[in-house]
Design a protein that fits this description.
The protein has helices at about 60-75, 120-130, 145-150, 170, 180-185, 190-200, 205-210, 220-235, 240-270, 275-285, and strands at about 20, 30-35, 40-45, 80-85, 90, 105-110, 110-115, 135-140, 140-145, 155-160, 165, 200-205, 215. It is of the alpha/beta class and about 300 residues long. The strands form three sheets. It has a seven-stranded mixed β-sheet with strand order 1-2-3-4-8-10-13, with helices on both faces. A four-stranded mixed β-sheet has the order 5-9-11-12. The chain binds o-succinylbenzoyl-N-coenzyme A. Its EC number is 4.1.3.36.
Length: about 300
């Protein structure tokens, strides 16, 4: 019997979409959906270096980390979207012009600081640990470390002009972390090894066929489709989604994944009367009464 409150109808959306820009960023555009509109609840980062196919430098990554940390803490945000500026590239990986001998050179105010970083790994970890879904809206090339970014995101919506490629073995780099192991979980061991060993480009349709992306839409529909998926997610239980994401991560992430899942369980326990009884009894200097609701089966 159909539950009167349950519907399989999708809340379809149409543009134009309103975004409010968060200031203070140089390499990215960080926006939040306007309250009361279709974009409410969505935070979006656009890598904004189209002149280098949105390749990232340490500053780009530092800014993306600041944005995702902000989105994590903002209770009005339920979905985080990562995309690239223009119609050529999502992200072409690390900026090879400032690649030093042990990392990417940090530049501040036009001058090198002397520090070399591989801080994209810190951003990957943030995406992974973000308790809210992260969607990659891939609008062109996703290459090298840029390809790994979409691999680490929970979902990928690709435009029909998107192309996917690892280049590490051609340019002297590799991502032997999520970029290999998680990729293999997604597309299978044989395909992951092919992607890395041969460094071929794959079309959006090929990516869809191998399960590397969730859907492919015309480039002109990419924003609308991303908002559509976000709205469908936002209509569902954020705690259920948080637990599902953490469980899927825990299956791969060992102790770090267990810590994440357990952290969410602790949050839920704090929200119960039983959890709060422990705190209250301590503060009231009395023995706790933990079994007021009985012992559940
Ligand atoms: C993206 C490609 C295929 C696009 O080709 P297209 O459309 O023909 O454009 P181009 O004419 O080639 O490029 C336009 C302009 O953009 C510059 N440019 C492009 N990519 C980069 C880049 N990565 N760095 C710097 N500049 C870039 C071009 O030079 C050109 O400039 P102008 O107009 O001045 O000539 C094509 O561009 C391409 O193949 N790009 C290189 C892709 C690549 O090899 N990326 C690096 C791969 N390695 C990493 O990303 C390492 C990442 C990392 O940091 C890491 C570290 C530790 C652990 C893990 C990772 C990780 O992988 O995440």
């Amino acid at each position: 019997e159909q539950n009167a409150h349950h519907t399989t109808d999708r809340p379809t959306v149409s543009g134009p979409f309103e975004w409010e820009r968060v200031g203070g960023f140089e390499d990215i555009v960080y926006e939040k959906g306007a309250a009361g509109t279709n974009t409410a609840g969505i935070a979006r980062v656009t890598i904004n270096r189209p002149e280098v196919r949105n390749a990232f430098r340490p500053t780009t990554v530092t800014e993306m980390i600041a944005a995702i940390d902000d989105a994590r803490d903002d209770p009005s945000v339920g979905v985080f979207v990562l995309t690239g500026a223009g119609d050529q590239a999502f992200c072409a990986g690390g900026d090879q012009r400032i690649r030093g001998d042990h990392g990417y050179k940090e530049v501040e105010g036009g001058a090198e600081t002397g520090t070399q970083r591989l801080n994209v790994l810190d951003f990957q970890t943030r995406i992974r640990k973000m308790p809210k879904p992260v969607i990659a809206a891939v609008n062109g090339w996703a290459v090298g470390g840029g390809h790994v970014l979409h691999v680490v995101c929970d979902l990928t919506i690709a435009s029909d002009n998107a192309r996917f490629m690892q280049t590490g073995p051609k340019v002297g780099s590799f991502d032997a972390g999520y970029g290999t192991a998680h990729l293999a979980r997604i597309v299978g061991q044989k395909k992951a090894r092919e992607i890395w060993f041969l460094c071929r480009p794959y079309s959006a349709q090929e990516a869809l066929d191998m399960g590397l992306v969730n859907t492919v839409v015309p480039l002109a529909d990419l924003e609308r489709e991303t908002v559509q998926w976000s709205r469908e997610i936002l209509a569902n239980s954020n705690i259920a989604i948080r637990m599902i994401k953490a469980a899927a991560n825990a299956d791969e992430d060992g102790g770090a994944g267990l810590q994440e899942l357990a952290g969410h369980a602790t949050m839920l326990f704090y929200m119960t009367e039983e959890g709060q009884e422990g705190r209250n009894a301590y503060l009231e200097r009395r023995p706790p009464d933990f079994d007021a609701d009985g012992y559940r089966p």
